[in-house]
Write a structure and sequence with these properties.
heterodimer, A: six-stranded mixed β-sheet, five-stranded antiparallel β-sheet, 53% strand, B: mainly beta, 11 strands, 51% strand
């Protein structure tokens, strides 16, 4: 089955600087890669996702890049703000047959923004 | 438009007991997936329900079972609880042919 590794496990960044979180996946069939943000005691919330037919996707201060050959994808947050402090999870799925398939998650990155 | 809801929010059980957790999907969604999130870990897929049937299952024992009702809501049942079942149980709802999954707030289960 799919295995997703995520690094780093913790990341501290000065407010205004950029943060990068990296994930690798093992199953070449995976073609959908969402990122979720989970604040303490709250539900995971989808912040951005990318399909394998796209190399990069951007939404305001957040971007995701995908390297299918190397089987890795990354989350980039620019101009970080205190409200970006949370745990971030990457995930992978094969959505070839149906749109909705099980997500395999990484172990999470605790991002702390230092004011 | 109501989002995904789950009940109860917290639950304390003792080893060997049975528990039932409930999930109501987002309006317009027909698929419910259940995940277990241990402390400090990413969510792990338990199973998915669509058209009242279990469509996919992760690496969880038969003690974990579920059900989906005609209104698309779902239950997760866990029998013979173990200490290791203590976790946050999340349900995620979606439309069957779309990949985006929306999570509920979770039920935090503590097994003593």
């Amino acid at each position: 089955g799919e295995n997703v590794e995520q690094h780093p496990s913790t990341l501290s960044v000065q407010e205004g600087d950029s943060a990068v979180i990296k994930c690798t996946y093992s199953d070449s069939a995976s073609n959908y890669f969402p990122w979720y943000k989970q604040e303490l005691g709250k539900r995971p919330q989808l912040i951005i996702d990318i399909r394998s037919n796209v190399g990069e996707k951007k939404d305001q201060r957040i971007a995701v890049t995908l390297n299918k050959t190397a089987k890795h994808f990354s989350l980039h947050i620019t101009e970080t703000q205190p409200e970006d402090s949370a745990v971030y999870f990457c995930a992978a799925a094969d959505i070839s047959n149906f749109g909705n398939e099980k997500l395999t998650f990484g172990t999470g990155t605790r991002l702390t923004i230092i004011p | 438009d109501a989002g995904v809801t789950q009940s109860p929010t917290h639950l304390i059980k003792t080893r060997g007991q049975q528990v039932t957790l409930r999930c109501s999907p987002k309006s317009g969604h027909d698929t419910v997936s259940w995940y277990q999130q241990a402390l400090g870990q990413g969510p792990q897929f338990i199973f998915q329900y669509y058209e009242e049937e279990e469509r996919q299952r992760g690496n969880f024992p038969d003690r974990f079972s579920g059900h989906q009702f005609p209104n698309y809501s779902s239950e997760l049942n866990v029998n013979a609880l173990l200490l290791g079942d203590s976790a946050l149980y999340l349900c995620a709802s979606s439309s069957f042919f779309q990949e985006t999954q929306y999570f509920g707030p979770g039920t935090r289960l503590l097994v003593l």
